[in-house]
Model the fold of this input.
Amino acid sequence: MNKLLSTMFVLAVAFATAQTAQAQQVSGSVENGAKKTAMCVGCHGIIGYQASFPEIHKVPKIAGQSASYIVSALTAYKTGDRKHPTMHAIADSLSEQDMADLGAYYAQLGMKEGQTVPATAQVPESVQALVSRDKDNSCTKCHGANFNTPNDGTVPKLAGQHADYLAVALRAYQVGGGGHGYVGRSNAVMGGQAKQFDSAEIKALASFISTLPGDVKTVPESRFHRVD
Done:
């Protein structure tokens, strides 16, 4: 019996490993992603569009973010690590392939009008004090000295993002992802960083980052894409 259980365990591990490897190999198609944006363009395809939850703020610019970040964000909304009723409902309807296709589409959408981004950002002393509050300078260590060159594909580009959205996101990290509420984001690193700042400091940091040249943008779409 022990031998049988041992064999079943090995097979289960092998199956799980194969499934993980398969998930990691999912590659996105720009062409297919363009056909799957019907649930996205109503908010992310309108310049200046504002959401009303958890407060009134502009929806984030997603064109120009990396494909891996978009997949990571959608996955977090699907699992509940990022709490947002509307985004959870949308992400929950997407397969891994759908997410990969949408990631590929929006990543290339931001490249159509190429932008020049400075190698470094000239940070005002008042903001530098906030960025440097952590001895490891985690803000720029992860998001890049210009807040536009993340050190990892799952980390978002922040430069040029809407200030009010950045503030809402930081406050969500302060709340965390525990419990059954409708607001909060689960991320140990971001939670630790966000909790260092009070409301005024979050507003100052978000306002500065929003003024920096960056890759992210909102690209208007005049119609919904037809799914064949």
